[in-house]
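Record 1 of the preview.
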Amino acid sequence: MPGCGTNRGSRLRMAAAEVPMAIPPAAAHKIPARLRQALYGVLVAASLLTGGGTARAVRVLAGPMVGAVTSTSARVWIALDTSDVVRVRCFDINTNREVCSIGTAVHGPPPFIVNAPLGGLQPDRDYRITLTANGAPVPLPPPALIIHTYPAPRILDNFTLAFGSGSDTVRYPDVSIWRQIARLQPRAFIFAGDTMFLPKKLSAFPYTYYAALRFIEQHYAQARRYRGWQRLLRICPLYATWDNRDFGTLHAGASFVFRDESLLAFEKYWPNPGYGYRATLGTFCRFRLGDVEVFLLDDRTFRRPPAPGHPGTMLGAAQLAWLKRRLLQSRADFNLIVDGDPMLAKYHHHECWANFGAEREKFLQWLFTHDVSGVVFLSGHNGFGELTRRPADPRALDQYPLYDLTSSSLAAAPLAPDRLARWRNAWRIGAPVRAHNFGVIAVGGPAGNRHLTMRLVDAHGQTRLSKTLSVSMLSAN
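->
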């Protein structure tokens, strides 16, 4: 089956053979992926130190990019062409005063990534950065990066988020939709999976672990250099989770043989607020923006298909426990749950949470019995956009309608009309959107009467679907 780890032992032996001889081949197969990567870094760094050579100018290969942001901090991501000692300085744009400075040694093996945490910032302010390597200025490619911190947590204002999925910019390089997103100047942009496209079949991947890691990183690097993304990378924070095409092979899940390598590559290229919780590693995380709490889920790392005697799982017990705990702690008006697969639609023979019906229904019933209000789902994957509404059970006084806005795709093959006809969704509101599209979430209104407007917008800036929800509509009370 594509994406399944058939004969993992033989792959481990090949990986052991590829590790430099400083690591005994017989022991290499026992080394976890993260430790293998660290050992590669030590060996490459040692070879650089002993190889001599003259200093040369450092170049930026990708970025800079704004990562996770709060009201007092931000992350900046940059890919360089070599290892070096670098320093990122952050300046208030209005006063031109330096507010923080972060120095770090960037090590290999490639890619050479700067992921700089900037602290001591003020809410709702604009900042710029400079970069030096060994004291020499490193030119940053245009357009200029601007970090805008979020307002203070208790301040309610009107703002817009944008999201989407399915970004195959190699085959679909047109920049129109990315210009529309950047023109909107969202407070943040969220990738709901498929940020780039890996091969569908395992046979197209390299055979060893380290080669597979480099292969996945190269796909991320190519996507990050795509010209249509450059302005968006510089004007708002970007957050991401994955789906099948940027996790691994088609329909890949927990058994994907390069699962660990895929997560290592994801962590290098997406400066998210976190990567799982404690010992449970994955792409799930959360962030807060005003009165909106956003939960990004990982529907691949723990995914196990249903089997006789086992209902299967898409999200896994540990991730669901984390999500439930954080939802109970949330005091936000709106709780946006983002996943790469549709969360409410019941498709036959297509990927969605309904394929894991026991897990999904148990979670939805938990939402209502624990009086968790304000939940809205955002999703991707389909190759078309749609809005799904799960009605409340009229016999259950603790329920409210649930909505899932699916945006797909940003830049990938739209689903053909004859295939789209087979994606039947009894809870769909209006017509599906076949055109390339992105989702827009506009939040506004006075305290006590906040509302959220969901839209799907096409590459020409035209709204193809719209729905407004008030706080009172998302509560059983």
